[in-house]
Amino acid sequence: MSDIDSETDPDTGDAVDAEPETDADTGANRGARRWDDSILEVRNLDAGYGDLQILSDVDLDVRPGEYVTIVGPNGAGKSTLMKSVFGLTNRMDGSVTFGGSDITDTVPEEIIYEGIGYVPQNDNVFANLSVQENLEMGAYILDETPEDALETVYDRFPILRERREQKAGTMSGGQRQMLAMGRTLMLDPDLLLLDEPSAGLAPDLVDDMFDRIDRINDDGTAILMVEQNAKEALRRCDRGYVLVDGRNRYEDSGVELLADQGVRQDFLGG
Ligand SMILES: Nc1ncnc2c1ncn2[C@@H]1O[C@H](COP(=O)(O)OP(=O)(O)OP(=O)(O)O)[C@@H](O)[C@H]1O
């Protein structure tokens, strides 16, 4: 694990205004770096469901156009962290800021106006609606369907154009995942939250899904992704967080996390 001992990011020269604490026994950094140009800033967040607290003192940053992955064991709170950014949990303490606006207490219906799109892991399409109707629903907050956004989605996922009249419920898991992503892209978000986009996909479709996410990111959309397929996710992303028991455990570039012995041993199967 790289020590973060300066006030400046060595890669970019940007200011870093906090250094993570390093655990003397495990070598894990328990905090996370903070940048002054982040579009998403999660600070000291405690959150959960009702009175049940899942996240404790979590920090997370996403910078413009960055591709960030959250990995960690089952039940660590990865999905809860993502839901907390999108206003779907009880945020008990700390803050969430996006593009300079405090969205700690903002509801999802308003968060989409801020430029955040969320693709949940399950139940993410309207089964009884056609592909095209699903995509149109993605832009329901606008007076008219943005035809250019619709064409961009169809260009990204040509199978959706082919099947535009088909009921979403009759499509395969991979196609539904593309539809859910496409629907969220209809509003051209600045930040796309993806909860386990490879879950349930046949192995030969997983790479294809990751390639599509790479392209969305290459075109400028920042990505925050939770993934069980940790090695592949870390290989693809710019930066990653390892969450354990609802707390930050490691934070670093994907490459550094993949190379870190502690991360490999405890979370990546050696
Ligand atoms: N709606 C909910 N109400 C109450 N507890 C919940 C709810 N959703 C999740 N939890 C609990 O919160 C904890 C963290 O769950 P979460 O889904 O965030 O973990 P995760 O790291 O994403 O796990 P996995 O990799 O298994 O999806 C778990 O103990 C889970 O049972």
Q: Your description of this structure?
A:
- This protein has 270 residues and is an alpha/beta fold.
- It is 32% helix and 24% strand.
- It folds into two domains: 26-115 and 190-270, Rossmann fold (3-Layer(aba) Sandwich), CATH 3.40.50; 126-188, no CATH class.
- Strand 1 and strand 2 (52-62) form a beta hairpin.
- Helix 3 (131-138) runs parallel beside helix 6.
- Residues 1-8 have low confidence and may be disordered.
- The structure holds adenosine-5'-triphosphate.
- Residues 1-24 have a biased composition (Acidic residues).
- This is ABC-type transport system ATP-binding protein (Probable substrate branched-chain amino acids).
- Keywords: Amino-acid transport, ATP-binding, Nucleotide-binding, Transport.
- GO terms for molecular function: ATP binding; ATP hydrolysis activity; branched-chain amino acid transmembrane transporter activity.
Write the layout of secondary structure elements.
Blueprint: E1 40-49, E2 52-62, E3 67-71, H1 78-85, E4 90-98, E5 101-102, H2 108-114, E6 116-119, H3 131-138, H4 147-156, H5 158-162, H6 173-185, E7 191-195, H7 203-218, E8 222-226, H8 230-236, E9 239-244, E10 247-253, H9 254-259, H10 261-267
Parallel strand pairs: 3-8, 3-9, 6-7, 7-8
Antiparallel strand pairs: 1-2, 1-4, 4-5, 9-10
Helix pairs in contact: 3-6
Bound molecules: adenosine-5'-triphosphate (ATP).
Adenosine-5'-triphosphate binds next to strand 2 and helix 1.
The assigned CATH architecture of the largest domain is 3-Layer(aba) Sandwich
Strand order of the main beta sheet, please? 6-7-8-3-9-10
What proportion strand? 15-25%
**Roughly how much helix do the residues carry, as a percent range?**
25-40%
What gyration radius follows from the Cα positions, in whole Å?
18 Å
